[in-house]
Model the fold of this input.
Amino acid sequence: MSAMTDPASVYPAALRLAGRRAVVIGAGPVAQRRVLGLLDARADVLVVAPEATPAIEALADGGEIVWERRPYRAGDLAEAWYAVAAADDPAVNGAVAREAEAGRVFCSRADSAEDSTAWTPAVGRHDGVTVSVIGGGDPRRAVDVRDGVLEGLRDGTLAAPHHRGRTPGVALVGGGPGDPDLITVRGRRLLAEADVVVADRLGPRGLLDELAHDVEIIDASKIPYGRALAQEAINELLVERAKAGKFVVRLKGGDPFVFGRGFEEVLACAEAGVPCSVVPGITSSISVPALAGIPVTHRGVAHEFTVVSGHVAPDNPKSLVDWEALGRMTGTLVILMGIERIGAIAATLVANGRDAQTPVAVIQEGTMPGERRVQTTLALIEAAVAEAGIRPPAIVVVGPTVGLT
Done:
C-alpha cells in the first residue's frame, strides 16, 4: 500500500460547500451519485459532459444544477472549491486531476483513489449527525460500517447526545408497554440525552440502567407527597428542573396521552413558560393483546374496538364511561386499570346486553418477563382472576377476537 492510498495518511475533514462551486466532470451513474451528495450539501453544482443520465438531465431541467453539454476543457475548475473527475475516459480524468492539483482544488477521481486528493466516503445522516466512513479502499466495508453506526443511532443503542445548543425543557416520552425494546427510536434517543429522568412505575425501567452515571433519576411513584398531591408534585418537579437549565425526560408507560395524565403535565409546563415536547408511545391497550396473539379487530369478527379506564366502578357517580352503551356493542373492549373492579364491570356489561359467554382474556405484566394470562368468559372472569391471583398492572380484553386464539 502506497502512502497515497494508506488510510492513515488521510486527514478527515468536513467540507462546508453550501453556496460554493463544485464541478463534476462526467454525467454517468457514478457522477450522478456524487451530484446528489453535493446537492445534499447545498453546493453550487456545475456538471460538464456531452451526455448525461436521465436523472442528471432532470436536475438540470429543474434548475437544481447547471449542465454544460460539452467535453471537458482546461479552465473548467477555475472557480471550483471541489472537483469530481468521473468521466468515462481515464485520460480526461487525469487531465482534470492535474488541473485540480495545479489550482489547489481538492479532487476526487472516481477511477483512481491513488490519484485523488479527496476520497468520497460512505455518508449517512441522522438527527444532525453526519456519519462519514472511509473503508481503506474497500467501499463495501465503508458502507457496512456506516449502516451499522446509523442503525445504532436510529434505534438508540448508540447514544449521540446533544451537548451544545440544547434548549432546557421537558420531553414527555411514551415508553411503551414495558419491554425496553418497544420504546420508539426518538424516545430512546431523547432518553440518552436527558439530564434528569422522572420515571413512572410502569415505564420501561430496564432502560434506566443504560443512562450515564450523572443523570438524575427520580422515581415518580416515590415522590414524598400525599397521594392526592402526587401529580401536582410531579408537575412542579418538571418545571423546577427545566428552569434550572436541565433537559428533563418524563418517562411514562404506554402513551403519554392514553390515561397517562400527560396533558396535565403539558399544561403545567405551558403555564410556567417551559418548552415541552411529546413523544408518542406504543399504548399497552393494543400492543399487549397483539403480543399475546389477540387482535383487537378482525375481518368479519370485530369492526371496532374501544379502550376505557376501569379505575372507577360502573356505579360510581364519578365514572365518565357509558357502560350501558358498551354492553350493547359487539366489538372488542379493552379495559385498563380495571382488574380490581372486574366483577362489577363484567356484571354491568352482561346486564346491558353482552352475552355472558363472551370470551375474556386478562394479561398481567404484558411484554414483561412475569407476564401471565387468564382466558375465560364474562360470566366466570371474577372467579378466574381471584383463583389465579391476578394483580395490577393487567389488561382486560373482552370480545369475540379473544376466542380466535
